[in-house]
Amino acid sequence: MKFVCGQIAEREGVGVNKYVRPIVDHLKSTPLADVAASFCDLQEARHRADYDHTAIFSKAAVAAHINDARKAIGTIESSDEDDLRELAALLALSARANLG
């Protein structure tokens, strides 16, 4: 999920395979691009919370993370079914590629 979201959100250091580029490029123009960016940001915050024992999270920052997660869930729930299928296809292809 992190790799696929990184591709859609254009995070640094994440290349896009030429075979899936059309799908990734399409998803970048949909509301799922915001979901991908939120996933990356929220996972990074979670990792900081889990592993950086010096990290401090204010109540406002935690509330913002919760709001971002709720917004992402709402976006997924209201997304076009074809876009969701494309996202699922990318996830399946990524998982398959990582098995080899």
List its salient traits.
single chain, 100 residues, mainly alpha, 5 helices, globular
Write a concise synopsis of the structure shown:
The chain has 100 residues and is an all-alpha fold.
Q: Please estimate the helix content.
A: over 70%
Radius of gyration: 15 Å
Number of strands: 0
**Mind describing the biggest β-sheet?**
none
Number of continuous helical runs: 5
**Category from helices, strands and their pairing:** mainly alpha
What's the rounded overall pLDDT mean? 91
Strand content: under 5%
**How many angstroms separate the termini?**
17 Å
In the predicted model, the low-confidence regions spanning at least 5 consecutive residues are none
Helix/strand order:
HHHHH
Give the overall shape, derived from the CA principal axes: globular
Description of the molecule:
- With 100 residues, the protein is mainly alpha-helical.
- The chain is 73% helix and 0% strand.
- It contains five helices and no strands.
- It has helices spanning 2-8, 21-28, 32-51, 59-77, 81-99.
- α2 (21-28) crosses α5.
- It starts with a helix and ends with a helix.
Helices and strands, with pairings:
Elements: H1 2-8, H2 21-28, H3 32-51, H4 59-77, H5 81-99
